[in-house]
Every structure is written in structure tokens, then in C-alpha cells.
Amino acid sequence: RVLSCLTDKGVTGASFGPSGELSVPDQPVGSSISEEQQEEFVHTCSIDAGQPIIEALEFDMRVNPDHRDINELYTQCLIRNKAVEPSFTAQELARARESGTPLASTLPFIDPAQGPNIWRRCVDDPSK
Fold it and tell me: pLDDT band at 51, cuts 50/70/90?
């Protein structure tokens, strides 16, 4: 539905990659669709097709098939990758996430320069 919606709006070349990510190339020179319009169309078509819900379900099936506490999975990943001390807990992570403060500046990273990058990788796939 996303691809047909984009095509209907004049966006060409959109496709889904093997892992399900939407790829939308820059529109050809001379296209009447601006970059801002393209972004708006992608957002609207994705929402209308329910893509965020589908992506969330796919993520849960791939990353957390046993329905474990996601904070526990993220915490294990952070500890395994030496981003935080082994004493860091899932409860501490849950409180930090609920605070609304950016986690890159909230979490007690061992190395503040590398911690945010490790956090992003853990969010993408906590099994790594």
C-alpha cells in the first residue's frame, strides 16, 4: 500500500529492501516534487498504510520473540558491549527512558564518547 500510495502521488523508484526498510531515491531532475513534498508523502503514505505498526510488530518478532522485558534486553546489550557497568539494571534503564531526557546524556556510560553509539546499536538489535 505504501508503494502504490507514493506512485499515486508521483514519487518514483520507491522500494522495500530485504529487511523491510523503505528506500526512496531522490526524484529525477525536473521532477515537480520537492524534497520536502517527498518527505511529507512518505510520512503520510506510511502512516496511512499502518507501516509503523507493522515495523514494530516485525521488530518484536525478530528481536524479542519470547516477549521479554525490552529494558532487560537493552541492558544486557549495553553491559555485553561494555557501555555501562555490569551493576547497571533494567530498572535504572526504565527510569531513564521514562524521564523523557535524551538517553545519550542520561545513561551512565563508561565511555561517554562511545556510549551513545553503542546505545543506538542496542536499540536497533539488542542481541548484538
Answer: confident
